Amino acid sequence: MQLGAESLPVPLLGHGNWPVWSIKIRAFLNFLDLWKAVEPQEGVNVSPLDEQKALSVLILHLEDSLVLIFGADPSCTAQKLWGKLEQCYARLNHEPWCRSIAQQKQGGKPGCLQQG
Predict the structure, then answer these.
(1) Which of 18, 28, 42, 101 could form a Cys-Cys staple with 89, CB 3.0–4.6 A?
(2) What pLDDT digit, counting tens, does each position of 55-111 carry?
(3) What are φ and ψ of residue 13, in 5° steps?
(4) How far apart are CA 26 and CA 68, in angstroms?
(5) Cβ(69)–Cβ(107) below 8 Å
């Protein structure tokens, strides 16, 4: 039996599933050898293609309403996106700008630039 990426389902990040989602998406990105784009290590080069792949995997695993908020900035990197997601969800929505995400449907600043 051959193990492929399609046989490793990762749920979409939504409200309330950050703890499990963050573990699964990290494992998935590690499986794809793309975690290095999210947490670059000194001396490890990340190709532009790997950066784009990692960013794409993260965006494709967000609920639609979150894609509009976090995935709208074309200059965003996988590392920046992960940082914003972690800032918002790991701190249990204590950031002022995070509290409105559930209600926000469209508009606003792109996710990587959005601040409180």
Answers:
(1) 18
(2) 999 999 999 989 988 888 888 999 999 999 998 887 655 555 555 554 453 344 544
(3) -70, 125
(4) 22
(5) no
